[in-house]
Amino acid sequence: MLVDGKWMENWQPVQKADKDGRFVRQTSRFRNWITPDGAPGPTGEGGFPAEPGRYRLYVALICPWASRALIARKLKGLDDMIPVAVVNPTLTDQGWRFGGYPGADEDPQFSARYMHEIYTQADPRFTGRATVPVLWDTKRNVMVNNESADILRMFDTAFEHLMPSDLRLYPAHLAAEIDALNPRLYDLLNNGVYKAGFTSSQPAYEEALEGVFAMLDELEERLTGDYLFGDSVTETDIRAFVTLIRFDAAYHGLFKTNRRQVKDYPRLTDYVTRMLDLPGLRETVNMDHILHGYYSIKALNPNGIVPKAPDHIAELLSL
Ligand SMILES: N[C@@H](CCC(=O)N[C@@H](CS)C(=O)NCC(=O)O)C(=O)O
Description:
10 helices; globular; Thioredoxin-like_sf; alpha+beta; glutathione transferase activity; 37% helix; Glutathione-S-Trfase_C_sf
């Protein structure tokens, strides 16, 4: 991680934990919003009006949080509005790096080698982890936002006047229900798998495992319609999908969330296929990056052997 703008080595095994050994994810620092006219959003400062090509999205295709943003960009038809730079899926001693792997880009703007250089461009004294996704303003050369929950939401509305879309990922009539489910989904499932995977405490692992499967059971129960809130896809579906698509191939083995697989849940299995069939969504899923990325986490897999995708995932994704 960066401390006062300097990269500290040997960061990989050092995951922040609470006093009972539970994995704690860092909170995001850059919280400005792109808006139609550059007015300030719910947090941060204004000055970031929607403009075609102005903002770049830095992502890792292994990363579920970055994938949320990528999927929203796809479903809202923003490909031509928002260019993307993909980092190498293999975590290095200096965090995410550019290039050097099929499907990984060089940094188009600063020729940076590592993602942490983008953070020190934004703040030469930045302290924290150099996470993805990052939304970068190529005009002012500042970081707009590094929180995927915000990015998902701003992509839903900020570019509407430039690229109209019928899809509402956060419709007003569902806002309260979405806001109620999102934090539980995050805590128990999206981040729950990481809590199971990164803890060094047996009780914390078992607690996380309970949560993961309680939420999978709940989602299975809930999915009587096509999507979590009925017949139209929302941001919560995106949040659920990014974990479900990684579950059987990565989390089940590496993070030891191995009581059941998504394929053991009939409705969740159909739901994942339905999500994959949304226009463009399949293009955001790169199972090679996912497998290489997760299994390159040395603290969890010291020998770096990368498993093959399970047969049902290979079939699902036509690998
Ligand atoms: N709150 C952030 C979390 C992003 C995050 O944790 N990204 C991970 C990859 S999945 C990362 O970049 N980790 C690098 C690190 O921890 O050093 C968001 O949702 O945008």
